[in-house]
Amino acid sequence: MRYSKLLGRSLRDIPKEAEAPSHRLLLKAGYIDQLMAGSWTLLPLGWRVVSKINQIIREEMDKTGAQEMLMPLMHPKEIWNKTGRWDDPRVKEIMYQFKDQRGKEFGLSFTHEEVVMDLLGKHIHSYKDLPVKVYHFSTKFRNEPRPRGGLLRAREFLMKDLYSAHVSKEDMYKYYWEVKDSYLTAFSRMGLAAKVVEAAGGVFTENCTHEFQVLTSGGEDSIFYCPSCDFAQNKEIFEGKEGQKCPKCKKGIIKISNAIEVGNIFPLGKKYAKAMGVTFTDSDGSQKYPWFASYGIGPTRVLATVVEVHHDKKGIIWPKELTPFDVHLVSLEGGQEAAEALYEAMERAGLEVLFDDRDESAGVKLSDSDLIGIPVRVLVSRKSLGAGGVEVSRRVDGTSEVVSAEHLADKIKEFYES
To answer: Which residue, of 172, 293, 304, 375, is most buried by count of CB atoms within 10 Å of its CB?
Structure first.
Protein backbone atom coordinates (compact mmCIF):
# COMPACT_ATOMS: atom_id res chain seq x y z
CA MET A 1 0.00 0.00 0.00
CA ARG A 2 1.37 3.38 -0.99
CA TYR A 3 1.06 5.82 1.88
CA SER A 4 0.40 8.62 -0.60
CA LYS A 5 -2.87 6.85 -1.55
CA LEU A 6 -3.94 5.79 1.95
CA LEU A 7 -7.18 7.22 3.32
CA GLY A 8 -6.52 8.56 6.79
CA ARG A 9 -2.93 9.76 7.02
CA SER A 10 -1.38 11.24 10.16
CA LEU A 11 -2.70 14.42 11.75
CA ARG A 12 -0.66 17.29 13.14
CA ASP A 13 -3.40 18.52 15.50
CA ILE A 14 -5.89 16.50 17.54
CA PRO A 15 -8.89 17.58 19.65
CA LYS A 16 -8.07 18.68 23.21
CA GLU A 17 -10.69 16.25 24.60
CA ALA A 18 -8.56 13.33 23.38
CA GLU A 19 -6.94 12.61 26.73
CA ALA A 20 -6.46 8.82 26.77
CA PRO A 21 -3.23 7.72 25.03
CA SER A 22 -5.15 5.35 22.74
CA HIS A 23 -7.60 8.12 21.79
CA ARG A 24 -4.79 10.55 20.92
CA LEU A 25 -2.58 8.09 19.09
CA LEU A 26 -5.26 6.29 17.07
CA LEU A 27 -6.61 9.67 15.91
CA LYS A 28 -3.21 11.18 15.21
CA ALA A 29 -1.86 8.13 13.38
CA GLY A 30 -4.92 7.85 11.11
CA TYR A 31 -6.50 4.66 12.46
CA ILE A 32 -9.92 6.11 13.38
CA ASP A 33 -12.17 9.06 12.58
CA GLN A 34 -15.02 10.45 14.68
CA LEU A 35 -18.49 10.84 13.18
CA MET A 36 -20.16 12.04 16.39
CA ALA A 37 -19.85 11.48 20.14
CA GLY A 38 -19.35 7.75 20.73
CA SER A 39 -19.40 6.84 17.03
CA TRP A 40 -16.21 6.04 15.13
CA THR A 41 -15.10 5.04 11.65
CA LEU A 42 -12.32 2.48 11.48
CA LEU A 43 -10.12 3.86 8.72
CA PRO A 44 -8.13 1.39 6.59
CA LEU A 45 -5.24 1.17 9.08
CA GLY A 46 -7.63 0.63 11.98
CA TRP A 47 -9.69 -1.95 10.11
CA ARG A 48 -6.57 -3.95 9.23
CA VAL A 49 -5.70 -4.24 12.93
CA VAL A 50 -9.27 -5.07 13.99
CA SER A 51 -9.44 -7.72 11.25
CA LYS A 52 -6.37 -9.37 12.79
CA ILE A 53 -7.92 -9.16 16.26
CA ASN A 54 -11.07 -10.79 14.87
CA GLN A 55 -9.08 -13.55 13.21
CA ILE A 56 -7.28 -14.43 16.44
CA ILE A 57 -10.63 -14.57 18.25
CA ARG A 58 -12.16 -16.63 15.43
CA GLU A 59 -9.33 -19.16 15.54
CA GLU A 60 -9.63 -19.61 19.29
CA MET A 61 -13.44 -19.88 19.18
CA ASP A 62 -13.32 -22.43 16.36
CA LYS A 63 -10.98 -24.59 18.46
CA THR A 64 -13.76 -24.93 21.05
CA GLY A 65 -16.16 -26.27 18.42
CA ALA A 66 -18.16 -23.04 18.12
CA GLN A 67 -19.83 -22.14 14.80
CA GLU A 68 -19.78 -18.64 13.33
CA MET A 69 -22.95 -17.02 12.03
CA LEU A 70 -24.51 -13.53 11.83
CA MET A 71 -27.67 -12.31 13.59
CA PRO A 72 -29.84 -9.21 13.05
CA LEU A 73 -29.11 -5.95 14.84
CA MET A 74 -32.70 -4.63 14.93
CA HIS A 75 -34.95 -6.63 17.26
CA PRO A 76 -38.75 -6.56 17.63
CA LYS A 77 -40.08 -5.53 21.04
CA GLU A 78 -42.00 -8.81 21.29
CA ILE A 79 -38.90 -10.99 21.61
CA TRP A 80 -37.56 -8.86 24.48
CA ASN A 81 -40.98 -8.88 26.14
CA LYS A 82 -40.72 -12.65 26.52
CA THR A 83 -37.91 -12.23 29.05
CA GLY A 84 -39.32 -9.03 30.54
CA ARG A 85 -36.20 -7.11 29.71
CA TRP A 86 -37.83 -4.58 27.35
CA ASP A 87 -39.29 -2.66 30.29
CA ASP A 88 -36.44 -3.33 32.73
CA PRO A 89 -35.25 0.15 33.82
CA ARG A 90 -31.62 -0.97 33.62
CA VAL A 91 -32.13 -2.07 30.01
CA LYS A 92 -34.03 1.06 29.04
CA GLU A 93 -31.07 3.15 30.24
CA ILE A 94 -28.74 1.64 27.65
CA MET A 95 -30.92 0.20 24.85
CA TYR A 96 -31.96 2.36 21.90
CA GLN A 97 -35.73 1.76 21.56
CA PHE A 98 -37.87 3.36 18.85
CA LYS A 99 -41.02 3.11 16.71
CA ASP A 100 -41.23 2.89 12.95
CA GLN A 101 -43.73 4.87 10.86
CA ARG A 102 -46.44 2.28 11.53
CA GLY A 103 -45.94 2.44 15.29
CA LYS A 104 -44.20 -0.93 15.60
CA GLU A 105 -41.53 -0.93 18.32
CA PHE A 106 -37.94 -2.11 17.87
CA GLY A 107 -34.66 -2.03 19.72
CA LEU A 108 -31.07 -1.88 18.51
CA SER A 109 -29.04 -4.79 19.81
CA PHE A 110 -26.77 -4.35 22.79
CA THR A 111 -26.74 -8.13 23.24
CA HIS A 112 -28.33 -11.22 21.62
CA GLU A 113 -29.52 -13.62 24.34
CA GLU A 114 -33.18 -13.39 23.28
CA VAL A 115 -32.36 -13.85 19.60
CA VAL A 116 -30.23 -16.93 20.25
CA MET A 117 -32.87 -18.45 22.54
CA ASP A 118 -35.45 -17.87 19.79
CA LEU A 119 -33.17 -19.77 17.39
CA LEU A 120 -32.74 -22.62 19.88
CA GLY A 121 -36.51 -22.92 20.21
CA LYS A 122 -36.74 -23.49 16.45
CA HIS A 123 -33.76 -25.81 16.02
CA ILE A 124 -33.17 -27.95 19.13
CA HIS A 125 -35.64 -30.72 19.97
CA SER A 126 -33.60 -33.50 21.57
CA TYR A 127 -30.65 -33.88 23.92
CA LYS A 128 -28.85 -35.16 20.81
CA ASP A 129 -29.01 -31.60 19.39
CA LEU A 130 -26.96 -30.26 22.31
CA PRO A 131 -24.58 -28.69 23.06
CA VAL A 132 -24.95 -25.74 20.69
CA LYS A 133 -22.11 -23.21 20.47
CA VAL A 134 -22.58 -20.23 18.14
CA TYR A 135 -20.93 -16.83 17.79
CA HIS A 136 -20.88 -13.78 15.59
CA PHE A 137 -19.10 -10.47 15.10
CA SER A 138 -21.55 -7.59 14.97
CA THR A 139 -22.16 -3.96 15.87
CA LYS A 140 -23.60 -3.26 19.31
CA PHE A 141 -25.41 -0.09 20.38
CA ARG A 142 -25.41 1.20 23.96
CA ASN A 143 -26.73 4.59 25.05
CA GLU A 144 -23.66 5.68 26.96
CA PRO A 145 -24.46 9.03 28.64
CA ARG A 146 -20.80 10.08 28.58
CA PRO A 147 -18.85 8.35 25.81
CA ARG A 148 -15.16 8.98 26.37
CA GLY A 149 -11.69 7.72 25.63
CA GLY A 150 -12.29 7.21 21.92
CA LEU A 151 -12.97 3.50 21.40
CA LEU A 152 -12.80 2.70 25.12
CA ARG A 153 -16.38 3.83 25.80
CA ALA A 154 -18.49 4.25 22.67
CA ARG A 155 -22.18 4.18 21.80
CA GLU A 156 -21.59 2.01 18.74
CA PHE A 157 -18.88 -0.64 18.73
CA LEU A 158 -17.89 -4.05 17.43
CA MET A 159 -18.51 -7.14 19.59
CA LYS A 160 -17.83 -10.82 19.26
CA ASP A 161 -20.49 -12.63 21.25
CA LEU A 162 -20.60 -16.38 21.74
CA TYR A 163 -23.55 -18.31 23.17
CA SER A 164 -23.75 -21.93 24.31
CA ALA A 165 -26.64 -24.20 25.33
CA HIS A 166 -26.20 -27.50 27.21
CA VAL A 167 -28.08 -30.46 28.62
CA SER A 168 -26.74 -29.93 32.15
CA LYS A 169 -25.17 -27.44 34.51
CA GLU A 170 -22.02 -29.55 34.60
CA ASP A 171 -21.65 -29.49 30.83
CA MET A 172 -22.29 -25.74 30.75
CA TYR A 173 -19.54 -25.03 33.25
CA LYS A 174 -17.15 -27.43 31.55
CA TYR A 175 -17.46 -25.33 28.38
CA TYR A 176 -17.54 -22.07 30.38
CA TRP A 177 -14.08 -22.71 31.77
CA GLU A 178 -12.85 -23.91 28.38
CA VAL A 179 -13.87 -20.55 26.89
CA LYS A 180 -12.14 -18.80 29.79
CA ASP A 181 -8.88 -20.47 28.80
CA SER A 182 -9.49 -19.70 25.12
CA TYR A 183 -9.99 -16.03 25.95
CA LEU A 184 -6.74 -15.90 27.90
CA THR A 185 -4.93 -17.49 24.95
CA ALA A 186 -6.47 -14.99 22.53
CA PHE A 187 -5.54 -11.99 24.67
CA SER A 188 -2.01 -13.29 25.11
CA ARG A 189 -1.64 -13.55 21.34
CA MET A 190 -2.76 -9.91 21.13
CA GLY A 191 -0.06 -8.79 23.56
CA LEU A 192 -2.39 -8.38 26.55
CA ALA A 193 -1.94 -9.91 30.01
CA ALA A 194 -5.59 -10.19 31.07
CA LYS A 195 -6.73 -11.06 34.58
CA VAL A 196 -9.88 -13.11 35.19
CA VAL A 197 -11.94 -11.04 37.62
CA GLU A 198 -15.12 -12.02 39.47
CA ALA A 199 -17.93 -9.52 38.92
CA ALA A 200 -21.67 -8.94 39.23
CA GLY A 201 -23.99 -9.98 36.39
CA GLY A 202 -25.65 -6.60 35.73
CA VAL A 203 -28.63 -6.77 33.35
CA PHE A 204 -27.68 -10.30 32.24
CA THR A 205 -27.83 -12.54 35.31
CA GLU A 206 -27.91 -12.63 39.11
CA ASN A 207 -25.03 -15.11 39.08
CA CYS A 208 -21.40 -14.23 39.63
CA THR A 209 -19.74 -13.61 36.27
CA HIS A 210 -16.16 -13.16 35.13
CA GLU A 211 -14.49 -10.22 33.41
CA PHE A 212 -11.17 -10.13 31.60
CA GLN A 213 -9.36 -7.03 32.79
CA VAL A 214 -6.07 -5.49 31.64
CA LEU A 215 -4.26 -3.48 34.28
CA THR A 216 -3.50 0.04 33.07
CA SER A 217 -3.54 3.47 34.66
CA GLY A 218 -6.07 4.72 32.09
CA GLY A 219 -8.72 2.13 32.93
CA GLU A 220 -12.14 3.13 34.26
CA ASP A 221 -12.66 -0.04 36.32
CA SER A 222 -11.05 -0.70 39.69
CA ILE A 223 -10.13 -4.24 40.63
CA PHE A 224 -8.72 -5.79 43.76
CA TYR A 225 -6.28 -8.62 43.12
CA CYS A 226 -3.64 -10.79 44.70
CA PRO A 227 -0.18 -10.82 43.06
CA SER A 228 0.54 -14.24 44.60
CA CYS A 229 -2.46 -16.16 43.19
CA ASP A 230 -5.32 -15.76 40.72
CA PHE A 231 -7.74 -14.03 43.11
CA ALA A 232 -9.30 -10.90 41.59
CA GLN A 233 -12.64 -9.16 42.13
CA ASN A 234 -14.28 -6.05 40.74
CA LYS A 235 -14.68 -3.30 43.33
CA GLU A 236 -18.48 -3.69 43.00
CA ILE A 237 -18.40 -7.04 44.82
CA PHE A 238 -15.16 -6.90 46.84
CA GLU A 239 -15.85 -6.57 50.56
CA GLY A 240 -12.30 -6.05 51.79
CA LYS A 241 -9.69 -3.38 51.33
CA GLU A 242 -6.25 -2.87 49.84
CA GLY A 243 -3.39 -4.14 52.00
CA GLN A 244 -5.23 -7.04 53.62
CA LYS A 245 -4.17 -10.66 53.23
CA CYS A 246 -5.61 -12.49 50.24
CA PRO A 247 -8.82 -14.34 51.22
CA LYS A 248 -7.91 -17.16 48.83
CA CYS A 249 -4.22 -18.01 49.27
CA LYS A 250 -3.83 -16.36 52.72
CA LYS A 251 -0.32 -15.28 51.73
CA GLY A 252 -0.42 -12.46 49.19
CA ILE A 253 -1.35 -8.86 50.00
CA ILE A 254 -4.36 -7.42 48.16
CA LYS A 255 -3.63 -4.61 45.73
CA ILE A 256 -5.96 -2.29 43.81
CA SER A 257 -5.49 -1.17 40.21
CA ASN A 258 -7.29 0.63 37.42
CA ALA A 259 -8.11 -1.69 34.54
CA ILE A 260 -9.88 -1.93 31.20
CA GLU A 261 -12.44 -4.68 30.64
CA VAL A 262 -11.79 -6.39 27.30
CA GLY A 263 -14.07 -9.41 27.68
CA ASN A 264 -16.61 -11.12 29.90
CA ILE A 265 -18.36 -14.47 30.36
CA PHE A 266 -21.79 -15.06 31.89
CA PRO A 267 -23.28 -18.33 33.27
CA LEU A 268 -26.95 -17.62 32.59
CA GLY A 269 -28.47 -20.92 33.66
CA LYS A 270 -32.11 -21.70 32.74
CA LYS A 271 -33.46 -18.16 33.13
CA TYR A 272 -33.84 -17.34 29.43
CA ALA A 273 -35.06 -20.80 28.39
CA LYS A 274 -37.80 -20.73 31.03
CA ALA A 275 -38.87 -17.21 30.12
CA MET A 276 -39.13 -18.08 26.43
CA GLY A 277 -40.50 -21.61 26.83
CA VAL A 278 -37.58 -23.38 25.13
CA THR A 279 -37.21 -27.07 26.03
CA PHE A 280 -35.66 -30.26 24.71
CA THR A 281 -36.49 -33.94 25.13
CA ASP A 282 -33.91 -35.59 27.39
CA SER A 283 -32.71 -39.20 27.09
CA ASP A 284 -35.39 -40.35 29.56
CA GLY A 285 -38.16 -38.75 27.50
CA SER A 286 -38.77 -35.81 29.85
CA GLN A 287 -38.89 -32.18 28.77
CA LYS A 288 -36.07 -30.04 30.16
CA TYR A 289 -34.77 -26.51 29.85
CA PRO A 290 -31.26 -26.10 28.38
CA TRP A 291 -28.50 -24.47 30.43
CA PHE A 292 -27.32 -21.30 28.75
CA ALA A 293 -24.21 -19.08 28.86
CA SER A 294 -22.83 -16.11 26.94
CA TYR A 295 -19.32 -14.83 26.29
CA GLY A 296 -18.17 -11.50 24.85
CA ILE A 297 -15.05 -9.74 23.56
CA GLY A 298 -15.05 -6.20 22.19
CA PRO A 299 -12.52 -6.08 19.30
CA THR A 300 -12.63 -2.29 18.98
CA ARG A 301 -12.06 -1.87 22.71
CA VAL A 302 -9.23 -4.40 22.41
CA LEU A 303 -7.72 -2.21 19.69
CA ALA A 304 -7.68 0.77 22.06
CA THR A 305 -6.47 -1.30 25.02
CA VAL A 306 -3.51 -2.65 23.06
CA VAL A 307 -2.48 0.93 22.31
CA GLU A 308 -2.93 1.91 25.97
CA VAL A 309 -0.46 -0.84 26.89
CA HIS A 310 1.90 -0.70 23.89
CA HIS A 311 3.05 2.84 23.17
CA ASP A 312 5.80 5.30 23.97
CA LYS A 313 6.24 9.04 23.58
CA LYS A 314 6.78 8.63 19.83
CA GLY A 315 3.64 6.62 19.09
CA ILE A 316 2.16 3.13 18.89
CA ILE A 317 4.20 -0.09 19.15
CA TRP A 318 2.11 -2.90 17.65
CA PRO A 319 2.50 -6.50 18.86
CA LYS A 320 3.63 -8.70 16.00
CA GLU A 321 0.29 -10.49 15.46
CA LEU A 322 -1.67 -7.24 15.21
CA THR A 323 0.52 -5.05 13.02
CA PRO A 324 -1.44 -3.50 10.13
CA PHE A 325 1.49 -4.19 7.77
CA ASP A 326 4.55 -6.43 8.01
CA VAL A 327 6.96 -3.70 6.94
CA HIS A 328 7.00 0.09 6.83
CA LEU A 329 9.15 0.96 3.80
CA VAL A 330 10.47 4.53 3.77
CA SER A 331 12.32 6.17 0.89
CA LEU A 332 14.55 9.19 1.52
CA GLU A 333 16.60 11.35 -0.82
CA GLY A 334 18.72 9.28 -3.16
CA GLY A 335 16.82 6.08 -2.44
CA GLN A 336 13.55 6.58 -4.32
CA GLU A 337 14.34 4.40 -7.31
CA ALA A 338 15.76 1.57 -5.23
CA ALA A 339 12.77 1.78 -2.84
CA GLU A 340 10.32 1.45 -5.76
CA ALA A 341 12.04 -1.73 -6.93
CA LEU A 342 12.19 -3.09 -3.39
CA TYR A 343 8.47 -2.37 -2.81
CA GLU A 344 7.50 -4.38 -5.88
CA ALA A 345 9.81 -7.24 -4.87
CA MET A 346 8.47 -7.43 -1.33
CA GLU A 347 4.87 -7.36 -2.56
CA ARG A 348 5.63 -10.21 -4.98
CA ALA A 349 7.16 -12.13 -2.06
CA GLY A 350 3.86 -11.90 -0.18
CA LEU A 351 4.82 -9.29 2.41
CA GLU A 352 2.26 -6.68 3.44
CA VAL A 353 4.07 -3.39 2.92
CA LEU A 354 3.19 0.21 3.76
CA PHE A 355 5.39 2.26 1.42
CA ASP A 356 5.92 5.91 2.34
CA ASP A 357 6.45 7.27 -1.14
CA ARG A 358 5.46 10.85 -0.27
CA ASP A 359 7.50 13.92 -1.18
CA GLU A 360 8.12 14.82 2.45
CA SER A 361 11.15 15.55 4.63
CA ALA A 362 13.06 12.79 6.37
CA GLY A 363 11.87 14.13 9.73
CA VAL A 364 8.20 13.91 8.80
CA LYS A 365 8.52 10.42 7.35
CA LEU A 366 10.47 9.00 10.27
CA SER A 367 8.15 10.65 12.80
CA ASP A 368 5.10 9.21 11.06
CA SER A 369 6.72 5.79 10.96
CA ASP A 370 7.23 5.83 14.73
CA LEU A 371 3.69 7.12 15.24
CA ILE A 372 2.05 4.38 13.13
CA GLY A 373 4.02 1.72 14.99
CA ILE A 374 4.68 -1.08 12.48
CA PRO A 375 7.25 -3.45 14.09
CA VAL A 376 9.81 -3.35 11.23
CA ARG A 377 10.96 -0.32 9.22
CA VAL A 378 13.07 -0.54 6.08
CA LEU A 379 14.77 2.74 5.20
CA VAL A 380 16.23 3.30 1.73
CA SER A 381 18.44 6.35 1.25
CA ARG A 382 21.62 7.51 -0.41
CA LYS A 383 23.39 6.89 2.88
CA SER A 384 22.09 3.32 3.33
CA LEU A 385 22.83 2.39 -0.27
CA GLY A 386 26.33 3.76 0.13
CA ALA A 387 26.76 1.55 3.19
CA GLY A 388 25.80 -1.52 1.19
CA GLY A 389 22.03 -1.87 1.34
CA VAL A 390 19.01 -0.76 3.36
CA GLU A 391 18.62 0.13 7.02
CA VAL A 392 16.33 -2.24 8.92
CA SER A 393 15.14 -1.18 12.36
CA ARG A 394 12.80 -2.51 15.05
CA ARG A 395 10.12 -0.21 16.42
CA VAL A 396 10.10 -1.81 19.86
CA ASP A 397 13.68 -0.91 20.79
CA GLY A 398 15.07 1.13 17.88
CA THR A 399 17.88 -1.31 17.07
CA SER A 400 18.95 -1.09 13.44
CA GLU A 401 21.49 -2.35 10.96
CA VAL A 402 22.26 -2.09 7.27
CA VAL A 403 21.70 -5.28 5.29
CA SER A 404 21.97 -6.11 1.63
CA ALA A 405 18.81 -6.52 -0.44
CA GLU A 406 19.38 -10.26 -0.83
CA HIS A 407 19.46 -10.74 2.95
CA LEU A 408 16.52 -8.43 3.70
CA ALA A 409 13.86 -11.15 3.85
CA ASP A 410 15.92 -13.17 6.34
CA LYS A 411 16.47 -10.10 8.51
CA ILE A 412 12.75 -9.26 8.58
CA LYS A 413 11.96 -12.86 9.50
CA GLU A 414 14.60 -12.74 12.23
CA PHE A 415 13.07 -9.57 13.70
CA TYR A 416 9.63 -11.16 13.85
CA GLU A 417 10.91 -14.37 15.40
CA SER A 418 13.10 -12.72 18.05
So the answer is: 304
